[in-house]
Amino acid sequence: MSSPQTAVPCIPHFIDGKPYQSRSTQWLDVTNPATQEVVAQVPLATPEEVELAVASAVRAFQSWRNTSLGARMRVMLRLQQLIREHTAQLAELITREHGKTLPDAEGEVARGLEVVEHACAITTLQLGEIAENAATGVDVYSLLQPLGVGAGITAFNFPVMLPCFMFPMAIACGNTFILKPSEQVPSSTMLLVELAHQAGVPPGVLNVIHGGADVANSLCDHPDIRALSFIGSTAVGTHIYRRATEAGKRVQSMMGAKNHCIVMPDAHKDQAINNLLGSAFGAAGQRCMANSVAVLVGQARDWVPEIVARSRALRAGPGTDRAADLGPLVSPRARARVERLIQSGVEQGAQLELDGRGYQVSGYERGNFVGPSVFSGVRPGMEIYDQEIFGPVLLLAGTDSLDEAIAFINANPNGNGTSIFTSSGWAARKFQNEIDVGQVGINVPIPVPVAYFSFTGSRASKLGDLGPNGKQAISFWTQTKTVTARWFQPDAEGGSVNTTIAMK
Predict the structure, then answer these.
(1) Handedness of CA 145, 146, 148, 154 (dihedral sign)
(2) What are the residue numbers of the active site?
(3) Taking a C-beta distance cutoff of 8 angstroms, is the pair 27, 4 a contact?
């Protein structure tokens, strides 16, 4: 932590429709994980700067809430076009600060774009209901109205997609918003916010505040913030959920995972192995939806040598190298943690089939690289199984039957996503019905649904009953007001007093 420098860009906040240069004396370096080069500095916002952002959002809500659905839709239409036009620039910024490969970064932008496209349908999504003549001469109807000021706190691993999981739907519903992106990867998020303002988002409707735990706690506590969305680790997400709900806020908290993939012996072998490795090692394993545990059923356990061989053939390199299969981890601290967990697996009796520690990339010797790593013989109780590694480490377990594999997965407390690879419709249907996980893939390695379906992680991977995207996002970012109305003729007689609760 240091004072701001002039040798690298100083990332501003974004308050009231324009960049705001922080007065903070506390700044963090933003580094390129392939080189350790400092590419920018980001401030830890002062309490006064947080107040400025909230006050701006409060003021803007008074007019934005009354902006027509059609006008809000047109802003989203312009934003989706601007994102398309700036995909390459957004991807380059993601790769520079996160490390993921350019093709993977471009894919991230595309998944974020899906949510903005879904928000373009707000004119048909934010509709209430009406029952005409629910009682004699009485109409009952519901309105979906914006909450007020919302806030979002995002993790480092998807600096464009995760903000898109939050603010487009929130502001399309008529709310104003304060975003606290990860301080490790701020630049692509800032470009996304600038594009939103170019698309016509009015000043104060979308604000950005940078910082760490103190800023996150301020957003949880602030009385003018009505709802908060979080995506990140389980420890932080649990803290955010408890603190914000105690302050009376509506909260959705998407947290950590330990995702499993069942591989049946009747699966298409090449497709199953390739998809499994892509899920486990893409983004260097830094995905909450990575299938990091493969449960090999029956004769599929004989595929271990081929899984290891194909893993060994994958190549790590800087994200700018389009031939690289995976990039570096986000920080030296992340690399050290992954390597420590690999060592714990060895010490606790798992078989290390492929060791990615000490991986070197020519010309990038200071990069945070860990090569693809594979363990077999993994069991619950081992640290590598019980913790989310968040690195390029694939764990292999085995069972004799599909029933045992389902029981194995259901015994794990997390429930973000799971997949099965099989040629049997019966096995797939049994799996989807009996598995206790919120998002299921059938011959799909990363079961994140398209954006017009909701993100439905479950159990220990989620706190709050409504997830991002789809119809659940509309429910989360609006409040339902029900109106019961009767209109009398101007010359109608008053009749007698009715002291019952019933309407006729």
Answers:
(1) positive
(2) 288
(3) yes
Length of the chain: 504
Give the pairing type, strands 138-146 and 478-486: antiparallel
Structure confidence by residue, pLDDT tens digits, 349-384: 999 999 999 999 999 999 999 999 999 999 999 999
Give residue 201's domain range. 13-255+469-483
- Please return the burial class of 425, using the count of CB atoms within 10 Å of its CB with bins 0-12, 13-18 and 19+: exposed
Give the global pTM: 0.95
| Residue 151 CB contacts under 8 Å (≥ 6 apart), including other chains | 177, 178, 179, 180, 219, 225, 227, 228, 229
Domain CATH number, residue 207: 3.40.605.10
Hey, what amino acid is at 415?
Answer: G
- d(C-alpha 17, C-alpha 14), whole Å: 7
Q: How is the chain split among helix, strand and coil, in percent rounded to 5? A: 40, 20, 40
Q: Please give the single-letter amino acid code of residue 3.
A: S
pLDDT at 502: 77
308: buried, middle or exposed (CB in 10 Å: 19+, 13-18, 0-12)? Answer: middle
* 226, 149 Cβ separation under 8 angstroms: yes
Residue 3 has pLDDT above 80, yes or no: no
Alpha helices in 304-364 (DSSP H): 304-313, 332-347
Tell me if residue 155 falls in helix, strand or coil.
coil
Let me know whether 299 and 244 are in one domain: no
Asked if the structure places residue 503 within a domain, the reply is no
Burial 330-344 (b: 16+ CB within 10 A, else e): bbeebbebbbebbee
Dihedral sign of CA atoms 350, 396, 306, 102 in order:
negative
Please tell me whether residues 161 and 137 are part of one structural domain.
yes
The 10 Å Cβ neighbour count of residue 236 is: 17
Task: Give the up-direction half-sphere exposure of residue 177: CA atoms within 13 A in the CB hemisphere.
Answer: 29
